[in-house]
Amino acid sequence: MDYPLIVDIFFLLLATLAVVSGWRVFCTDSMVRASFFLLVSFIAVGVIMILLTAEYLGVAMFFMMAVEMMVMAIFMVMFMMNPAGLNPMMMVHQHKFSIAAGVAIFVVLGGVALLSEFPDNPLPADLDPVASLGNELLGDSMLIFESAGIVLLTTMIGVVVLSSHRGRYGAAEEGSMPPGLEPGGDPAGMPEEGDEGGHHHCH
Amino acid sequence: MIVNELILPVILVTIVLVVGAYLVAVIDGMIAAALGTPQRGGAWLAPLTQGAWLLTQQANATEAPDWRAWRLAPALYLALAATGLAVVPFSPTLIPTDLVTSVVLWGSVEALATVVIFLHGWSANTLLALIGAYRYVALGLSYILISMFVLIGVALPAESLQFSQVVASQEGLWNVIRQPLGLPLFLIVGLGMTFWGPFNLADSRDLAGGTASTVSGPSRLVWELARAAMLVAFSGVAASAFLGGWLGPWLPGPLWVMLKMLGVLAVLLLLGRLLPRVQPERCVTLMWVVLLPLSFVDLIWAGVEALL
Predict the structure, then answer these.
(1) b or e along B29-64 (b: 16 or more beta carbons within 10 Å of the residue's beta carbon)?
(2) SS3 B87
């Protein structure tokens, strides 16, 4: 197939960027940085997909990974006791298992890349990548999948609307107060007044 | 081939972005002066003086920031604005990047802008900047969703995800009339993703400048420039998605696109000066309870209209 040399150069640059930023994910000491290094790696892969004329898949990779990594970073920071993810912390664990798994997967994927025979079909000149991808993925089941997609989306929005304002223990903007252990009792789990052990604080 | 496919688009995008960002500052100054806000210097000179002053200022340092991310974030936001402008068709033949999925690429510019704005506030390692960053992420998702539904509505009659096809599909009737809800909703997205005027919650006064509160000197200049440039890129997308892009009588296509972009910019800047800032909690409610359902209505409208 004929293509300009610049495509090869860009492929090599992007592949290097993808691998290096993927490797940095495991070297950095912050979860936010790790998420965004992973995002850089995925974006490089997305651009490679555009080079392969998978234009929809490549661009879809950008926005899906952008939102996904953003949400992942926020949630990881929320669940870990690490204010804002700026404190240095160890990001890797289970060293022996993960090294073994990494080597095994590398060997398998490398074997696939070297040993399998890739098709050599030139693209038809009038290929419409978006429409052909949609037909390839969904085909006759288009209506079913689209309906399922709308149902899922409605569910997601419903969940956000239900959970955004009213919390478990009252409206979000009023501050939450857990219910009492017996009906009408004092809020459970609250510290007693003056039980702070000489630690004074003013309200 | 290289001239037509590489050099010309880069020059075109750069010129439109730089001149456009300057015009944003000028128009904003003029609107402010007309509304009675005292302005130092003339509207034409003030942005240049301000820019030159920022260039000579010392760059602030905070305690243990993530330097690389902090310095990169404004440049990345500017790069996203350039990427967004690169998919705007200026005429049937003059299109910087005629990607078949350019509408989706604009969507990913909006999504990546969320990441970059978060990074800008997060990497400074200061309180108010971090609050601004979290605020933008909380709101950014709703901007992206509204924009996505409105743009799918635009792609439906064109039967394509390509902006040049979207413009061509408006030959008979512009989308601003065909889908009356689309442009108003999309303008709100534009104000949101550049955190301008009523939706300036990331860099707002109540956070002493938010994500930019500790940024000074050249990187502050790049950040302000990038915001204005993003507004320019947005106006280009709005002009091609709803106002018929290059379509119009008498004048050549590119001139029509520029005029429509200026019109969108003027409306956005006027709204930015006239409307008060929305409270963050109310803004979330407004987005999810009012505007998102309206964008569904817009999409259903577009679908029914495409079927008829």
Answers:
(1) bbbbeeeeeeeeeebeebbeebbeebeeeeebeeee
(2) coil
Q: How far is CA A80 from CA A63, A66, B6, B193, in A?
A: 26, 21, 46, 29
The kind and range of the H/E element at A166 are strand A166-167
Q: Do B112 and A66 touch (CB under 8 A)?
A: yes
Checking if the pLDDT of A202 tops 50, the result is: no
Sign of CA dihedral B53, B55, B58, B62: positive
Segments forming the whole domain that contains residue B254: 2-307
Question: Residue A63 is nearest to which of B100, B111, B289, comparing CB atoms?
Answer: B111
**Count of the separate structural domains present in chain B:** 1
Model pTM?
Answer: 0.87
Residues of A in contact with B103 (CB under 8 A): none
- Does A203 have pLDDT greater than 50? no
CB contact under 8 A, A62 and B125: no
B79-94 pLDDT tens trace? 999 999 999 999 888 8
Q: Please report which helix (H) or strand (E) contains residue B250, including its range.
A: none
With beta carbons less than 8 A apart as the criterion, state whether B219 and B74 touch: yes
H helix intervals, A80-201: 95-115, 129-137, 142-165
Q: Could A67 and B118 be called an inter-chain contact, meaning their C-beta atoms sit closer than 8 Å? A: no
Classify residue A167 by its DSSP letter: E
With the C-alpha atoms ordered A130, A134, A135, A136, is the resulting torsion angle positive or negative?
positive
Question: Using an 8 Å Cβ cutoff, are A176 and A170 in contact?
Answer: yes
B178 to chain A, closest Cα gap in Å: 24
| Phi, psi for A167 (deg, rounded to 5) | -85, -175
Residue A162: its chain B contacts at CB < 8 A? Answer: none
